[in-house]
Amino acid sequence: MLSENIRKEPIVPVMLRHGERAAIATKIRDAMPLIASAVERNMTWFGQRFPDAACRNGQYPVIDNQEWTTGFWTGQLWLAWEWTGEASYRTLAEQHVRSFGERIAKRDCTNHHDLGFLYSLSCIAGSKLTGDREAKYIALQAAELLMERYHHRCGIIQAWGELDNPEQQGRMIIDCNMNLPLLYQASLATGEPRYAEAAKRHIEQARRYIVREDGSTFHTYYMDVRTGEPRFGNTHQGFSDDSCWSRGQAWGVYGFLLNYLYTGDKKLLALSQTLANYFINRLPDDLICYWDLALTDPNSERDSSASAILACALLELVKQLPVTHPDRESYEALGLKIIESMIDRYFNLTHQQGEGLLNHSVYHFKGNVGVNECCAWGDYFLMEAIARATSSWNSYW
After folding, report:
1. In order of start, what are the domains of the chain with their CATH numbers?
2. Out of 175, 292, 303, 379, which one is annotated catalytic?
3. Per-residue pLDDT reduced to its tens digit, 354-364
4. Which of 58, 258, 267, 291 would staple 303 via disulfide (CB 3.0–4.6 Å)?
5. Is 175 a catalytic residue?
6. Is there a contact between 395 and 381 (Cβ–Cβ < 8 Å)?
7. 132-139 own/partner pairs: CB under 8 Å, 24+ apart
8. Which of 114, 132, 303, 379 is the catalytic position?
């Protein structure tokens, strides 16, 4: 359980050298049309279907709208439309919105908490960008379904499985921080506070129990469904139960920050910085993390997707901190340098139809799924990071 005296590690200050900001901006401008062209090629490859969560042997299998990750592809389409104004991106994204509407109506593969990942980047984005009332309505239906997973006694949203499954009851995972904006949006749209109240209770439980006293995080934590008391934390994705899974830490940095934006709770803003500093202090020289932050062997697999998420969070932190904050300049420099490293060393320059954008991600290392491949969220967060670095981007979250 988190003590109120959680230790925030200091970071070594990072500054952009003279001319470095302009050089990074040039690299980003040069990469953007290549990325947009890659998205266009994949539109032809996927048609009205979707990429699987991760590539296999360098190429995405084509699937129906069933995985927890399909919203990341729709998010790429919305971003490409914002970048270029080309109607084809919007047209396909709007077709996806209808697909997500059918999915929620049929409850097709919705038995999990990742409805935020699915519906924020498809329907919330569509509603914000085009004023589409149908998209807004579909997102509300998704929020209502997410509320069915809220356990009042535990104060959490159950991550996975049937609600009466004894192995899954009372289980929250750090990824859910990113799903909660869907509930805040529902309260804003309807005026009903119950959605936001559930989100606030869940993020408080995550703050108290998922975060360790040294600023690292558990991937998953169990609550007692009979008493509401905490039980124990462990990992599904990480190296070990007491290590720190990199992508989970990234979800924590970004997710606690997003919840701060909706609640104004300064504890969440401070916690986002604490998790960020822990992450930053364990980055290799090229700023692309190993798949678990406990790893130090340079031969360990990288997870570029986790660093992409971190870059987005750092650039949002820059917007939320006062200009006098001692780490603000470092957060901005690191966010931009991570983007530069992704473009220089990890971007798939030889992109062919069906391939991803960001090489060297890890989906599930222990299961040997999506190891050293492109993955849907890595591709999306590369694009979001670039959008944040180049404009006053209006977040989909």
Report:
1. 20-390 (1.50.10.10)
2. 175
3. 999 999 999 99
4. 291
5. yes
6. no
7. 132/94, 132/97, 134/97, 134/98, 134/101, 135/97, 136/189, 138/97, 138/100, 138/101, 138/104, 139/182, 139/185, 139/186, 139/189
8. 114
